[in-house]
């Protein structure tokens, strides 16, 4: 027995010696994200601070014989896809140098992660020696490269190459887009959504022994799928399955040629919901696979598949992928015989005895609007064929209704009979309304006064307080399918001594860029978000400035944008009457500064605009433009476009004092908002004009809040400087 133990002990010592030798020989480079998006925050701390502290902690425990290096990207220049630097070559005893390099990084630029990983592999001589790269990124590739293809290329060409990817604060869809880099090289993808998860990920890939990271012959668990071989488009099927049922395992439907375990399919169901899994069939006919995806510590693995042929159908109902709020209107695309009495109907799940809760006739066309119940829960939508002497269900699909965002905000006390504004969030049906009732009133009728919300635009509603002092309730009432229901309420005190309703006083707010961008000239602007009792007036600076800027605003929430020569700073801020109101506006890689443009340019053909289109704002916030020919500059509202500016000139050579230009909003039905600078002829009956620095700005009469806000943005930001 002792001899056996001695032999076993000797064997163990030999194995440890081999593992230690392998571990010491491992050569690794960390590829660190230095892009501007690292200024984004998690739990109130910038991600770059979290990353620096985590790397410091991990490196303090790095074995001295580990060969470690560092490559950074996006940390020296803004907007440069070639900004990739080998800051520390892989060598032993480099923990101090790596830490110092990470601490010195600035976070400025783009995300060329694919090329950075390639350069890291080449620095490790991956075709000659075993090599490992650890990518830490908080964003996706922004330099037109394919990380998935690179993973396959490095795995095929390398002697023994592995890439691990740490997604820092990425969504599930974003993580799937970069996880393939790890999966295609036999590495692991780590989803790190906070400081603790980032530390765990780096501890595992930088400090842990190699064997747990790349199990040589791990046997995956078994799984089976039993499901229909065919199904109609947009229908729902049940797949009976067996498998490990881990928390993040799921079943999905993918095209038959899909090879990656991270497909990004929206036709899925989590295994945690049990067997059978209810899966929504794609709306396009063809050959598909039902797959069981095992989310193991080493990544996603396909454990089982079953073929599925999706066929066209006489009937189909396509439910929007986004959650549907109770009491709202759902827009449903449908396919069916379109008989004169056919309709779509909503029923409680498994209970049709009492008839439908809501319905709409298909004669209104596809997509069809239908009022959903104002009680959250699971329902069914059916296409009902109203035939001659018969009624039948052509197809039935599930419908999930959620509570959504519902609230009221109003003054706590007002004087008797005073008018005041109520901010609200809710389903926003045209028939929904806000009322005032005595305190304790529980009926859905008998209101003292009311105002319809008027649709989903969420503009404040004006109400008049009761004349009798006392305590009252302000309520949001939904007229959703199934009956009238109170969705939210707040207390109102009517008091003769309450403060008079008055315009909100202005307060000062200050904006600045992060310290890493100190010295950058920035042109600032701020636009109030709709749906709040704030005048729709924009604020903008005509010239770029360096350093902190300040201005006065009504309290409220604003979209702030700062345009620098080669990048954009953007964010939403809430300015409060009693707050410090000093805001650091972070860089936004998704927004690009609009270049100056001349009449010879044709940049908008790709989006289907005509040759008369001068400028267009594709961003979600207003875009700054400058016209080199006329010297005209302005902030163009999101979604708006213009024609080319010009200066009127008579046949005798007389020129107008200022340029003329038209601005057009996005289409709303058959209507397109229009604003004109210095129109040649303008009838007063068209609408009002206001003086601006270079002439007059005119708009057609409208009460559309988006158009009014856009007009104020243009009025506040139009400026004229010498051409060129």
UniProtKB/TrEMBL annotation:
InterPro entries with a match to the protein in the record: VWF_A, vWFA_dom_sf
SMART domains linked: VWA (SM00327)
SUPFAM superfamilies reported in the protein's UniProt record: vWA-like
Domain of life: Bacteria
Name of the protein described by the UniProt record: VWA domain-containing protein
Organism: Paradevosia tibetensis
Organism placement in taxonomy: Bacteria, Pseudomonadati, Pseudomonadota, Alphaproteobacteria, Hyphomicrobiales
